[in-house]
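Marked as duplicate of an earlier ticket. Keeping the data here for the record.
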Amino acid sequence: MNHLRAFCHRSAYWRKLVRVIVCVGLFLDLSTVTSAEEVAILKSADISAYSEAITAFKSALPPSLHVTSEYDLKDDMAEGRNLARRIRASNAKVVLAVGLKAAVTAKLQIQKIPVIFCVVINPKKYGLPTDNMVGLSFRIPFHQRLQTLQTLVPNVSRIGVLFDPEKTKGMLNQLLQDAEASGIRIVTEEVSAEKDVSKALNAIKNRIDALWLLPDSTILNENTLDFLLSTTLEANVPLLGFSADLVRSGAVVGTYFRYAEIGKLAAQLSHQLARQTSPPLLGTIISPGRVRRSINLRSARHLGLSITFDLLRQFDEQF
């Protein structure tokens, strides 16, 4: 009986101790959350590229930072003023703006909170960054993308480009300058509406060695992607993409930054900006990391391109 009482006494003691430990743990967890600095996220739309960057951003944030609000413009700039007002009224110490419309909204509506913007094409065209912003570059030098293409097509000299002057005229002008310096001729075809994509590609497909895709939503969208892929393959024209998804879908090669790496770097910068340890970063654009290259083996073989082990070693990803 004495042994039983002793056992029960010890069991009660351990149960109390466990409860104390659990309560202390909960208190510490709650105190960590409540003491963490707030971070707000503003994205232009709900698309996979943005989501990939945001997911990586959240997972890489240190315990000292906590995402308290996430807003979606849904491609509607008119909504930006309302969302920015909510961000300004919060205790956010840093704002992550993902996509062009989110970055421009932050530029116009958020001036007193440090902003990190990413996944923005040609930011200088839109007056980005401002003094309270740091941008993650999304631009890859022409020679690096050309080198990826020349890995498979060494003698490429005429590259086709479809463009909407309302969306990518600035990018095309830069491309023309870079290509001229590299001795490459750019064959262009203007497209002002999605319905004209097929006519434009058919007009140049027999006069080019490859087709260079720009991030132009008039040219490249869910309705035109299959046509661009099938037509270039049939015409024996390699298609150069600018994302892993495009290469996975059928573009022969691609050169790009990984969205996850962009998100992780944004998280590191958030920590520095929230602690105000890197004010020199504000007003600058920095590189988000190493440029990646990928190849679609099925498309390459369909085009009869030579694929060797040494060649494949030059690519980060194969599909």
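See parent ticket for discussion. Residues 13-34 have pLDDT under 50 and may be disordered.
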